[in-house]
């Protein structure tokens, strides 16, 4: 079951009763595995099957890119009403992985000398970060991107959020400023979605464009990420092929009601977690980012200057919109995870981006075997990136599109 501790650990972008157009539904039995796995990924396919059969998630998909080859696997259903199987090309809400896109755009602006990581928030948004001990003159862009600002996390005040069915960024900041900071800037680490609302506004001020347009023109179009975009305004629809997104709204117990959260106004999350993408697009994006194709060397070094995390994902460190996780097998992988109502996802891989795993479940609970979907993802990373893996030759995998 998904616990309060899990929500804190992942820094989920969850805000109580803010989901729009949720309809109650009844789950149907999961389908069988989408297809037989190739030999070298049989263990990963078995894990996907077990996530459905034992973990009780509606459906799960994964894509591996390893060098010039690609493998994908699925289990369970995209739609419990029709029994339609999950597909590798399904689009889904990526939650906090949005932050990696936002940080990449910010660092591109830094490379263009339009922003400095040492600029204060007041330099770009004068008077916005004020009150209850907050001081925008003492918080830099760097502190926003690596979560060392100490600014209160607005998604922790669900009572205030319930007053805004479709909030503006300014209203979200007002909620954050009504609380004292967690610590003096630069003295600790705490995951705060408010940081990236501020970062998004700074990007718009510095670039003169909308955040959605900057992500599209700087990242999605050049990399041919056809299924990746930041919704505009309160658009609740996932455009293009997608699975349904199912949520128990963090209720526990076998009788917890399941809701359909596929259509949702994500203006509440915007720059901190509203984006939509696919497993293939995310692997392509992170492969380009990790290999140094999206940022000059100086900004690449800044992004990957990591700080220790607190009360978050076990074994993790955080840079500028990017995280690393050291697995129990000793391997360290790099990427980001995210979640919204009805969608949990991870995309992590080797530091050079040559070996990537993207994985998503279209539910936000587990019924057994794991505490939460993060446990499933951790096991998947352990399977895929264990040292000394003697998988079959790559020729048994499908050729991947160049990226």
From TrEMBL:
EC number: 3.-.-.-
UniProt signal peptide: 1-20
GO molecular function annotation: hydrolase activity
InterPro entries linked: AmpC-like, Beta-lactam-related, Beta-lactam/transpept-like
Gene3D superfamilies: DD-peptidase/beta-lactamase superfamily
Enzyme class: hydrolase
The keyword NADP appears for this protein: no
Residue ranges constituting the Beta-lactamase-related domain according to the UniProt record: 44-346
Keyword annotations of the record: Hydrolase, Signal
Name assigned to this protein: Serine hydrolase domain-containing protein
Organism: Sphaerisporangium rhizosphaerae
